[in-house]
Amino acid sequence: MRLRLRQICLVARDLEPVVGDLKRVFGLEVCYVDDAVAAYGLVNALLPVGNQFLEVVAPKEPGTAAGRYLDRRDGDGGYMVITQCPDLEARRRRVAELGVRIANPLEHGDFQGMQLHPKDTGGAFFEIDCQQGGEAEDGPWHPAGPDWKPHVRTGIVSAILAAELQSPDPERLAGRWSEIAEIPLERNGQGAPVMPFDNGELRFVEARDGRGEGLAGLDLKSGDAEAAFARARAAGLPPADGVIALGGMRFRLV
Questions:
Q1: The domain containing residue 36 runs over which residues?
Q2: Strands of the 186-187 sheet, one edge to the other
Q3: Quick one: 83 and 129 in the same domain?
Q4: Do 83 and 184 sit in the same domain of this protein?
Q5: Could you point out which of 66, 72, 93, 205 has its C-alpha 20 to 30 Å from the C-alpha of 215?
Q6: Which of 185, 163, 230 has its CA nearest to residue 26?
Q7: What is the average per-residue pLDDT within 149-174?
Q8: Is there a single domain that holds both residue 38 and residue 164?
Q9: How far apart are alpha carbons 132 and 100 in whole angstroms?
Q10: Maximum distance among all Cα pairs of the chain, rounded to whole angstroms
Q11: Is the domain of 52 the same as that of 162?
Q12: Which of 119, 150, 181 marks a domain boundary?
């Protein structure tokens, strides 16, 4: 069963500081602001990373699911792993077989998807979407708006290579995501369980930062890591051991 890593969503108390840091450090540009997220009490912004996307959402009113998530994880951080598949019906049948709840079904014309309930997946929201006519690597992607390509900036980073889910029990979490995705696990050089995507991977590691289970890191393909490190230092985000801490996430440049 194929899955492509297409988008990562971060959640923040305040939208603009995190979006501003992503632009300053990685040279990215906002391609779309989706007013429809107001229905969930949110504001957002999307930034293309090659033909993938970073989204940042922030609550604009009390009582939102995003706000509760911020409280639970003690601040900004990762929120959703968003994937693209060629056959959503097969995915729907699979989650039904496993008793995984769909927290939010998505229907927007030629774009359909489902956000799976994080209590049933563990780690983060696991979203699986299908974009009809969007099979090409740079094909259309409804969440990013109708005209995202002119906003692509690849001088510093050009792809999302991996996302990192941390857990007190990474083996259990990896097994659950693998079961849902129907993708066999592999092992990386450190022996950590890894779920391969068509264009990257999802890595499962032990939680060591005191924030518990959640989406905690991203690996970005970079043609100029030193420029990113210099920009991070100028923004008051000095790298440590080659990692840039931004928006409650660990960014590694590969």
A1: 4-150
A2: 186-187, 193-197, 200-206, 157-167, 214-222, 249-253, 243-246
A3: yes
A4: no
A5: 93
A6: 230
A7: 98
A8: no
A9: 24
A10: 50
A11: no
A12: 150
pLDDT of 93 higher than 80: yes
Quote the Cα angle for 213-129-249, to 5°. Answer: 30
Q: What are phi and psi of 143, to 5 degrees?
A: -60, -20
Instruction: Quote the DSSP letter at residue 105.
Output: E
**pLDDT, tens only, 17-42:** 999 999 999 999 999 999 999 999 99
Length of the chain: 254
- The residue among 150, 184, 206 that closes a domain is 150
Residue 160 banded pLDDT, cuts 50, 70, 90: very high
Which 3-state string (H, E, C) describes 45-88?
EEEEECCEEEEEEEECCCCCHHHHHHHHCCCCEEEEEEEECCCH
Residue 251, beta-bridge partner list: 218, 244
- What b-and-e string marks burial along 202-238, b requiring 16 or more CB atoms within 10 Å of the CB? bbbbebeeeeebbbbbbbbbbeebebbbebbeeeebe
